[in-house]
Amino acid sequence: MNAMSAINKRQYAPAAERNREPISAVLAEHLPASATVLEIASGTGQHAVFFAEQLAPRHWLPSDPNPIARESIASWRAIAQLPNLHEPLALDVTQAQWPDFVTTWQQQNAPESALRAIVNINMIHISPWAACEGLFAGAAQLLTAGDVLYLYGPFKQGGQHTAPSNAAFDRSLRQQNSAWGVRDLDVVCETAQQSGFVLKAVIAMPANNLSVIFHAAD
Ligand SMILES: C[S@@+](CC[C@H](N)C(=O)[O-])C[C@H]1O[C@@H](n2cnc3c(N)ncnc32)[C@H](O)[C@@H]1O
């Protein structure tokens, strides 16, 4: 991709610009020091470029099922020219075979850098619940004991919204798609546990979001 077509295909999300620094600080503390990190639902690719730079030498592997998003990620990548940022994969976590694509990619492209973490930002409330289930089920096939699964977004806690702005956001999500909505952290943790993940940390983030860190169990 030449520089001009790359610039034209980049998408920009203001929220990603705002939250990338606090998320990066949490990731720096909780991700394995050297590993391949798979990002599920990379969206525009702004995060991928920022995290690949901030969290090097880790390998950063972005992905998204949406071809327009992948084009944007590829465009940010073409301009950033970072050696540890890979081409985006077409992954949809509701498709049972998504871990197989990652394993094949890993064997062909980065056999020396094990996949030890999966990062998923702002997806499980903007997709059907099956996406959350598919994320944990697939992650369980890819990660081994002590590896990290990181979620970021708004969550209910104890069945309640934690802020009026989250309640309003939840209503607007459900109006767009009745299968979407802000998830309850307890229910997410139950689903995680069923797939063999242990909750390690819940960290309050700006704008009433949470960082939620799971480890793959032994
Ligand atoms: C609100 S955007 C968040 C993008 C990015 N993580 C961010 O925070 O800027 C939600 C993303 O989830 C992706 N997504 C939705 N359903 C998905 C699925 N089943 N598997 C993987 N990604 C999915 C969409 O394509 C979209 O890029």
UniProtKB/TrEMBL annotation:
Pfam families given for it? DUF938
User: What protein name applies here?
Assistant: DUF938 domain-containing protein
Q: Which domain of life is it from?
A: Bacteria
Q: What is the lineage of its organism?
A: Bacteria, Bacillati, Cyanobacteriota, Cyanophyceae, Leptolyngbyales
Give start-end of the signal peptide: none
Protein source organism: Leptolyngbya iicbica LK
